[in-house]
Amino acid sequence: MRLPSPSQALAEARSAAGAGDHARALAAAQQALAGNPESIDALVLAVNSALRCDQLLLAVPWLEALLRSHPHNIQFQRLLSTAHNNLGSRQLQAGETGTALQAFSRALAVWPDNAEALFNRARLALDAGQPGAALPDLERLCAQHPHDQAAAILRAEARIATDDAEPPLQARDALAGLRALQ
User: Which pLDDT tens digit goes with each residue over 43-68?
Assistant: First the structure.
C-alpha cells in the first residue's frame, strides 16, 4: 500500500477536520508532517486535531514548532502555555508533584500571565509548605484579577505564613472576611 503524498494527506486532514472527524484528521495531519515537517498548515491541523482528541503530549511539540516559526504569535503562546498547564494538572492528579511543577513553570515561561498556571503553581507551593515561593505568583495573579476571591485568599494565607502581612491582624481580618463571602 502506497502512502499518500504530503499534499494528499493534508487535503485528507482538512476534509476530516471539516467533517468533525478529529481522530482521522490527526492521523492524516501526522502523515502530512511525516512528508513535510515544516508545513505550517499541517502543523496547525495536527495541533487542532490533537487538542480536540485530548492528545496534549502530541500537541506540545507541534505547538513548540509553530512558536519557533512564529515567535510573537500570542495565540500559539497561549495554546502552548495552556497545554503545559493542563499537562501539569494531570500530573498533579496522578501525584507527580515534581513534574507538575515543571509543567506549570513551562506554561508560565511561555505566557507569564496564564492565570490558571499562576494559581496552580502557587497552590502547589503552598501545599508543599513554601508560602514564600507562592507569593510572587499570587501577587501577579491578584494584580491581574483583583476580584478573584480564591486568589486573594491564597495570597492572604501566603502573606500570613511569610509574615509579609502589614499589619498581621489586618491580613487575618481580610482573610476572615473573604472566607465569609464564600
Answer: 999 999 999 999 999 999 999 999 99
Question: CB-side exposure of 96: number of CA atoms within 13 Å?
Answer: 11
Omega prior to 167 cis, within 30 of 0 = yes
Rounded to whole angstroms, the Cα distance separating 7 from 128 reads 50
* Distance set, CA 26 to CA 43, 52, 56, 76, 89 (Å): 10, 9, 12, 18, 24
Residue numbers of the chain with a pLDDT score lower than 70 = 1, 164-182
> What pTM does this model have?
0.85
Q: What is the DSSP letter of 71?
A: T
Rounded CA-CA distance 27/179 in Å is: 49
Gap between the Cα atoms of 174 and 103, Å rounded: 32
- Tell me the three cell numbers of residue 130: 513554601
